[in-house]
Design a protein that fits this description.
- It is a single chain.
- It is built from eleven helices and five strands.
- It is an alpha/beta fold.
- It has a five-stranded parallel beta sheet, with helices on both faces.
- The radius of gyration is 17 Å and the shape is globular.
- The model has no long low-confidence stretch (mean pLDDT about 95).
């Protein structure tokens, strides 16, 4: 069996509000940053490999210049919000030892990809995977699932995909990949 894992909220935490709450006491600042950074087009464009972190920061600062310092602080430390979810990570060696193949499929930027792969040694357990920034595609685009299957010559019916978003699960299932919605 081939196990395919999303990263955010499956292997590593991803909670922008909690991250911003830890940085800023002012709820208005948190709301403005949440909306303009994490829910803005630039975040998705970073994941699609269309913008660098610096380019996204510059665009966001131009849009909300009164929050330039806060935007730069939040974007400059953004990778620190990704912390291990031990309950999932601890199963990876067991799956590998049992003879299963492990893959990742995640919407993620170049900078975050580089940071996470260098920081967390559990990536060494993976047979491979697809980061959205490299594919220039983001989930739930069906082509990103097809790319993973083609790249590693995987049969969709021999795969199980774990993700925390229903739309990504639905897209994987349309491609014939068994899927599990991860909730915490």
């Amino acid at each position: 069996m081939n196990y395919i894992f999303d990263i955010g909220n499956v292997l590593l935490t991803y909670n922008p509000r909690e991250y911003l709450d830890g940085m800023f006491a002012d709820e208005t600042v948190v709301d403005v940053l949440l909306h303009n950074i994490f829910l803005g087009d630039e975040w998705l464009m970073r994941d699609e490999g269309k913008l660098t972190q610096d380019e996204a920061t510059e665009i966001i600062c131009a849009r909300i210049p009164q929050y330039t310092d806060e935007v730069k602080a939040a974007m400059g430390n953004v990778n620190k919000m990704f912390l291990p979810i031990e309950a999932t990570i601890n199963h990876l060696p067991e799956l590998k030892k049992a003879g299963h193949s492990l893959y990742y499929l995640s919407n993620i930027s170049f900078e975050t990809r580089d940071y996470l792969v260098a920081k967390y040694d559990f990536f060494e357990l993976f047979n491979g995977g697809v980061f959205s920034c490299d594919a220039l595609l983001i989930k739930p685009n069906p082509e990103i699932y097809r790319l993973l299957l083609r790249k590693y010559n995987l049969n969709a019916s021999d795969c199980i995909f774990y993700d925390d978003m229903k739309k990504n699960i639905a897209a994987a299932e349309k491609e014939g990949i068994k899927s599990v919605l991860v909730t915490r």
